[in-house]
Design a protein that fits this description.
about 500 residues; alpha/beta; binds zinc ion; six-stranded mixed β-sheet; binds manganese (II) ion; binds ligand BES; single chain
Length: about 500
Amino acid sequence: MVPRAPAGYKRAHMKLRTVPAAAASRGPLTFVLVPDGALPEVGAPLRGALAAAKATGDLATGARKVSLFHQPAKAALRRLGCVGLGDRKKVDTEALRRAAAVAQAAAERQGTKDFALVVPAAACAGVDAEAAGRAIAEGLVLGAYVYEPPRQQKPKPRAGQQCRIAVDGAPKRDERAFTRGVELGRIAAEATVFARDLENQPSNIATPTALAQAARRLAGGRVKVKVLDRAAMERLGMGALLGVARGSAEPPKFLVLEYRARGKTTKNACVIGKGLTFDTGGISIKPAGKMDEMRYDMCGAGAVLGFFHALAHGALGDHEPKHNLIGLVAAAENMPGHNAQKPGDVVRAMDGHTIEVLNTDAEGRLVLADAICYAKKFHDPAVMVDLATLTGAVVVALGHEMAGIMGNDQKTIDALIAAGKQADEPLWQLPLWDCHRDQMKSKFADLANINSPAHGNGSTAGGAFLSYFAGDTPWAHLDIAGAAYGGLHKDYYKGGAAGTAVRTLLHWARTL
Ligand code: BES
Ligand code: MN
Ligand code: ZN
């Protein structure tokens, strides 16, 4: 019996509460967001404290700058913290999210477990109140996230933090919208943290079986979960997915999550994730450098599981989707082994398409092909989205700060781009033309899983391959190979897995 591999430790919790501004201006430490120029309108006693802080000449208002001011001995507020917002005309959701994360980090540095954050309505006049509340909650919860790796010495458990949040100077209606935003942002961010935790675990922990267990734990209430094992996949004829899994001792799993809309709708929207818990490349093996990063090859699955974590916790608020939401995850490990598929092997996908596997490292599109077939056969989707760390080429084209999107339906693509904008997770459309589809034809099967290197286009070839399985069902493909990990650090993201696209999917789901 092999000893159980060590898992990372659970991170500390961040508790959020929205309170009236007066209740946020007492206690050991209260942060206020302060833009350049005239001090923003806030109520007493903060107004006086802020004016006094400015009079010292030490108040820094540049974006993300922190200044701390001790308060007079008898004041109900012990310390005032100011987090700069910079130019108030440029304050947007991303600026608020970062400012909140900066406040969280400053509170943690100070060793203050219970702190408050006051958002002057005047400091973010250009941002919708609900969106502001969301961004603030996301910044606090995502900023508090750290992946604690397993070590001989368990880390001292980090004390959980608590933040009282208030919007100051907003009309009642905006105050309510802000409060709603905080709650939805909290749910979205905790779901993102859940995704990050799965994504950051090494591949001997986060196996397909572990992903299936994580999915099962989301079942209950309005979420149903089903797991197909290898035998079930064999019965369905998922030859493309099973071909990828052949080389590994880790059994593949196919996860089906369902969120039933309350109405009588029979329409379904499918969200499909690539769940390669490790991608060695298989027989077309990858070079050794940075191969460890292929633990992140399940980040599409992470996005889908995070999305369902959020749905299970009420992320849609009182928005009732007109579609049932179906999550599908194709989880497998891509290994070279005596049983592994080999370049030139021909496999058959569930819908009958035959595929020549010219490169065993183009495995994501193989597992997704069967997942798309499954979606179409059992859920007859009105719309499908797949998310996958599909190509290194998308990192070359777009880097880590955005994901590529392509598909067969401009309306679906536009809706996702808009959702990405709201989440501050940008998507950039790549073409998917007939010339790209033509590149995927094979002499020895219906399709080849790669185009010729001479064609040059890597990411659109992946999309073009998938388009044969999508057929004329409205579909979009997000290539998140860059966005999933390795991006710029930005206060609410400090490296490793980003938990990307969970929040984008939530914004998109609200349009369904
Ligand atoms: N998982 C990789 C894509 C990837 C590469 C993700 C780098 C993140 C960082 C995928 O399975 C893959 O290996 N794609 C190949 C496709 C090629 C063989 C056509 C690639 O991008 O090299
Ligand atoms: Mn690969
Ligand atoms: Zn891969």
